[in-house]
# Entry
Amino acid sequence: MALLEGSNLRKTYRLSKRNTVEALKGVEISIEAGEMVAIMGPSGSGKSTLMHILGLLHTPDPNHGPAPELRLAGENVASLSDNARTRIRARRMGFVFQDFNLVPTLTALENVLLACEYAGIKGKVARDAAIEALGLVGLADRADHKPSELSGGEQQRVAIARALVNKPEIILADEPTGNLDSDRSTEVLALFRQFNREHGQTIVLVTHDSEVGEACDRVVKMRDGRIRDSGLRTGTPVMAVPAATAPATA
Amino acid sequence: MRLVRDLGRRKLRSTLTITGIAIGIMALVVFGSMANKMNALIGGGSKYYQDKAIVSVGSMYSGNIQPLALSDVQKIESIDGVAAATPTVDMLLSSEGGATSMGTPEMITGSIPGGDKGLETFKIDLASGRELTAADADSKVTVLGSDLARRLNVKVGDKVALRDVQFTVVGIWAPTLTAPDKEAYVPLAAAQDLFVKSLPPLIQSKIVASDIATGITVYPQKGVSPETIKTRIEDLLGKDYTVMTGKDFDAMLGSFSAIFSLVLTGIALLSLLVGGLSTINTMAMAVAERTREIGIKRAIGASRWRIRREVVLESAAIGLIAGLIGLVIGAAMTTLFNDLGRESGNVLFELTLGTAATAIIFATGLGAIAGFIPAWHASRLDPVTALRYE
# Structure
């Protein structure tokens, strides 16, 4: 059973009364536990939209045709309430964004603690976990610094510590290296790779950087709201998923 | 503490908003204290008058009191339902006529100690010294109200001049917040002498001091209402006499109380409106500025409820801080005004714990309520859109 499995995922955004954008036109995707997967494609290909849906930040459109399905460890999470999705994001998922997105008034440690707080972990347990997570990204000595006192690479590592602290089932990263120079990019990628290898952390990265793609186990290629290449090869254990193009029926 | 840091992010705006609410709360505290004092004054009077009838000729409140004869006391005592009637002599302490002041004027009050036959329910505690007794009947001794004693700066054993006659202070009452605080209580005979001396010489010669009073306090028997007594006295003595009961007093001064409460409510509503709108504005701007941050928090698992709580708490903190500042300034002002006013006998403010607590709760509640609208808006933001917000 795949850790995260979606089918018939569609999303249309209404920009104005007459102007709508079909960002996802029916996507099937499957992510196995322990995989490190890159979702790649040019801008406007729907890769961010897909990540938002996989990360339960948005819900897939209820289709006219076959209903969308999104299964996290077998449980259908496609049509959960906002509160239920929020709880899953807090406890079972970790997020890393392009702009680091730390809370500017909080120190590195407090930013990591925020994720613990939302997951319902408090006190010394949370503190120990946060310090450990900062240690894992090599920033134990910067715990009391505010984001403005940290470099871009350091900020992103704090964000990774925040994503890791609750030992989530899956980490979703949206262009995590997009705002970093190549040395820092390599560092951050190496960190992801290390967590994936050493702890079996499942990671999904959205990127348009081919170097990031090369560092992953598998690259899912998107174009025009559809998956063009699921990156699955014959003989790999994840063959259960239909490869290549998804049905494009409306 | 995160909350305070968030407030500190926009110091000028927070300061302005806090100042706005603080001014409102300050006004609330000052006027509230004034209303407290006023209500204590009126409430005290109301309590004093409730179980008796006061007979006088002319109105005591227009200051146009004419003497009545002591023989009226015996007439009234013989009325069915009257338990006791005792003469009093009330006159302004100042010989220059009624000094304009808020509250009651300073008075000299004379009566027979024990004349109430133990029926007086309005008890005044002593702060020091002793009460007048029957043995004082022919002495020049006095018990002073707390405000008067403080203004004259005397203590028990000191001599004090009342209308140019020397009296020995034998006791000082504890504060009552109402009329007796400004009274000098003397034996009836002493008051009669002072009263006669205050009259024009032509009239003086026709009057025997020991035969007059300015009022008669009438205590009904148990189960007889003061109203009934009032009717009977009026029937007996005729229309020249004014009989005042608790009901009359309440009818006369109750409206004062009501107006004060109205003014207070008006000020409260104004500060509610101004402070509330200003807080809504501040918090709405704070939310707009923090759109991205709210997006991050929502994305990594903060529930809508948690976002709302954050904004409302911050808003309530603005109110609380403003409330505390307003209370401190208001308390300082009332204390200062009271100290200044004490010289002239005008103690106008009474800041009670209730008023202070009301001001703080009001300010905090106002902040919290004003936070609801921006909080609601913040909690409805789409995390993805909020994350992209520049």
About this structure: Chain B is about 55% helix and 15% strand. Residues 246-289 of chain B form the longest helix (44 residues).
